[in-house]
Amino acid sequence: YAFYSNWKLALVILAFFPVITISGLIVVTANQSQSERASKSYAKAGSIAYGSISAIRTVLSLNAIPEILRLYSAATLEAYRFATGPLLRQGLINGGFGKNSKTI
Q1: In this predicted structure, what is the pLDDT of residue 67?
Q2: What letter would DSSP give residue 55?
Q3: Average of per-residue pLDDT values in the chain
Q4: Which of 22, 55, 79, 81 is the most buried (most CB within 10 A)?
Q5: 34: which residues sit within 8 A by CB, 6+ positions away?
Q6: What is the chain's percent helix, strand, coil content, to nearest 5?
Q7: What is the DSSP letter of 85?
Q8: Helix, strand, or coil (residue 22)
């Protein structure tokens, strides 16, 4: 019906359809990769916390609290960087996606 009603507009929409599809695919891929990296980093921080809590007597007897805090801080900082690092790229991708959809 679109080609019959307004064939020029239908051709313009068909020309921009691949651009919008590729933008959407890039957004989905970026979101999935960010989630995977962040969850792996949080799992590492969680394992450090679990290990230190389960062996609290050993940690206290060896006076290893500063070392455990350093390891946990490094792991959470890594998780923070993985969670916030790609946000600029995702913002640019989402902004491009919004711009492409507004063009039509």
Answers
A1: 92
A2: T
A3: 81
A4: 79
A5: 82, 83, 86, 90
A6: 90, 0, 10
A7: T
A8: helix
Q: Are 79 and 37 in contact (CB under 8 A)?
A: no
The residue assigned the tokens 């799992």 is 43
* Tokens 């933008």 found at: 23
In tens, the pLDDT along 26-44 reads 878 877 777 788 788 888 8
Q: How many Å apart are CA 61 and CA 102, to the nearest integer?
A: 63
The whole-angstrom separation of Cα 93 and Cα 48 is 34
Q: What letter represents residue 13's amino acid?
A: I
φ, ψ (nearest 5 deg) of residue 86: -80, 0
pLDDT tier at 66, thresholds 50, 70, 90 = very high
Q: In the predicted model, what is the mean pLDDT of residues 5-17?
A: 86
For 85, phi then psi, to 5°, come to -60, -50
